[in-house]
Design brief:
The complex is a heterodimer of chains A (180) and B (338). By secondary structure, chain A is of the alpha+beta class. Chain A has a five-stranded mixed β-sheet with strand order 2-1-5-3-4, with helices on both faces. Chain A contains six helices and five strands. Chain A has two domains: 20-94, Ubiquitin-like (UB roll), CATH 3.10.20.30; 104-170, DNA polymerase, domain 1. Helix content of chain B is 30%, strand content 20%. In chain B, a hairpin with a 5-residue loop joins strand 4 (59-61) and strand 5 (67-70). In chain B, helix 11 packs antiparallel against helix 12. The radius of gyration of chain B is 19 Å and the shape is globular. The chains are: A alpha+beta (180), B alpha+beta (338).
Chain lengths: 180, 338
């Protein structure tokens, strides 16, 4: 062991886990939680709230399985601390269906067989909902580029793109010019 | 993750006060790199100071005709901002070449500057690394070094800076505005990041008690003749092997002004003023671009696995300059290099 790592071990007194009280508005329902500050939003959703639809894939922001919408923007829940989202509106895969009807993106994934094992699917669908809201993608090529944060190890990409195209063709979108 | 205290800063002065009060504390904003580093045990902060509620999220005109970008402006908002799109398309292109839409929605302008290298050995806490554990040695010099630096490296560290955005900011001569206990100061972009030397654990010249408040762009964004060309192992969502930010001003076929910075090749965005000076006054031709590319790589050195990057960087530089001169910047959607 090097001198500095020994010094760190000796001086490193772990703080008493001081929990914080926060409120997350998850799928329209206010949830008050008492959490250690190092709890990720992903673990808060899955473990503390019990919504296990959001998946933990890599837990390092590389796979996109944990994608949720926070205040309408798609983000990686695994790289976000829950305490930093106190008061935020969070939408997970469980919150997309309304009054018993699937969200158009969910329906399109079924229509086009856009998954095999399904593990990446909640993240893919939340990411696609975010993508459509951003209105930056207007072609299959742009969908592929702007869905690159979601990995599918089964390789269902062609059908995922087709499913998203189906939804986009039905939703009027404004067309800002390409900035790349 | 290790246990840490957590507090929120109410304004810049409060943030500076809090960071000065706890030597083991660090700021957190987007968290896209920091949270990962904490999970991996590479960084072990005693306290995270949440700065996301500070009012640093505006993009404003400066009195000299440039733009001031608040440190908390997310990467995606910056890339798609109409003024950036119109006046600084090189910056928009570089941002959109990096990470994923989710990460760009989270990552901030200030945080992008402070992200750490993605060197495998820096992340692998079972191996020596001078950046993570000063004095322990560099595993990359004789290890897997395909992604590592070919310029400005030292025997102590051959890591690269991973940012795309910073390569464009270097070429555009941005300035970094910071606030600390001793007041505010402005740092030229070229002086913000450091070469590794014998202190690779120190990435930047930001002091421990300082916070980035904004990044300022001077008026000239080279909107007509620019290109950000990024070469990587996958077509999207991968760090650069080599990237090039090229910006030119051309009059009657003659280059009036040139800016050239490379990413993925050094411990900091690699801007080469000698190559820029060589281009200035030269005809905008392939021969001029090839000569500038030779100049940029004149002191390049490979470490085995990454030897190929020298030739790759030379060709990418010449190509990016051609794209800029032709007014055909590299698309970040269609990745074919033309």
């Amino acid at each position: 062991m090097t001198k500095s790592s020994m010094a760190r071990k000796e001086s490193k007194k772990l703080p008493t886990p001081a929990k914080m009280t926060i409120t997350l508005h998850v799928n329209g329902v206010a949830k008050t939680l008492h959490l250690a500050p190092w709890t990720t939003l992903l673990d808060a959703l899955r473990i503390h709230i019990g919504l296990t639809g959001t998946k933990k894939g890599c837990d390092h922001g590389q796979c996109g399985a944990c994608t949720v919408l926070v205040d309408g923007r798609r983000i990686n829940a695994c790289l976000t601390l829950a305490v930093m989202k106190d008061g935020a509106q969070i939408t997970t895969i469980e919150g997309l269906a309304k009054d018993g009807a699937l969200h158009p993106v969910q329906q399109a994934f079924i229509d086009h067989d856009a998954f095999q094992c399904g593990y990446c699917t909640p993240g893919q669908i939340c990411s696609a909902v975010g993508l459509i809201g951003e209105a930056r993608a207007h072609s299959a090529e742009e969908i592929r580029e702007l869905m690159s944060g979601n990995i599918c190890r089964c390789g269902a990409y062609p059908n995922i793109v087709t499913a998203i195209e189906q939804v986009m063709s039905r939703e009027p979108v404004s067309r800002p010019k390409e900035s790349a | 993750m290790n246990n840490f205290e957590f507090s929120r800063a109410t304004d810049v002065a409060d943030a500076v006060r809090q960071i000065a009060a706890d030597p083991g504390a660090t700021f957190v904003a987007g968290g896209t790199n920091l949270i990962d580093l904490i999970k991996e045990g590479v960084t072990k902060p005693s306290r995270l100071i949440d700065i996301t509620r500070l009012q640093l999220n505006r993009i404003e005109n400066t009195s000299d005709g440039g733009l001031r970008i608040g440190a908390l402006v997310p990467n995606s908002d910056l890339a798609y901002h109409p003024e950036i799109d119109k006046r600084f398309p090189l910056l928009a292109s570089a941002i959109l070449a990096g990470a994923s839409p989710q990460l760009r929605n989270m990552a901030t302008t200030g945080g992008n500057l402070l992200q750490r290298t993605r060197c495998f050995y820096f992340y692998d806490t079972t191996t020596p690394c001078n950046k993570r554990e000063p004095g322990s040695g560099c595993s990359a010099v004789d290890g897997l070094n395909r992604m590592q630096a070919i310029l400005g490296a030292s025997e102590h560290c051959i890591a690269t800076h991973p940012s795309d955005m910073c390569v464009a900011l270097a070429a555009l001569e941005a300035r970094v505005l910071v606030a600390g206990r001793n007041g505010e100061r402005s740092i030229a972009f070229a002086d913000f990041h450091r070469l590794p030397g014998d202190t690779p654990q120190i990435d930047t010249n930001l002091n421990k008690d300082e916070i980035i408040t904004a990044v300022e762009l001077p008026p000239n964004g080279f909107p007509k003749n620019y290109s950000y060309l990024k070469i990587r192992d996958r077509l999207s969502y991968a760090f650069a092997l080599v990237s090039v930010a090229a910006a030119l001003e051309i009059e009657n076929g003659v280059i009036r002004q040139a800016r050239l910075a490379l990413g993925g090749v050094a411990h900091k965005p690699w801007r080469d003023r000698e190559a820029e000076a060589q281009l200035s006054g030269a005809p905008a031709t392939r021969e001029s671009f090839a000569r500038a590319a030779e100049t940029v790589l004149r002191e390049a050195r490979g470490f085995g696995d990454n030897d190929f990057k020298i030739d790759l960087a030379r060709r990418a530089t010449a190509r990016a300059l051609s794209q800029a001169a032709n007014g055909t910047p590299q698309s970040q959607i269609d990745k074919r290099v033309r």
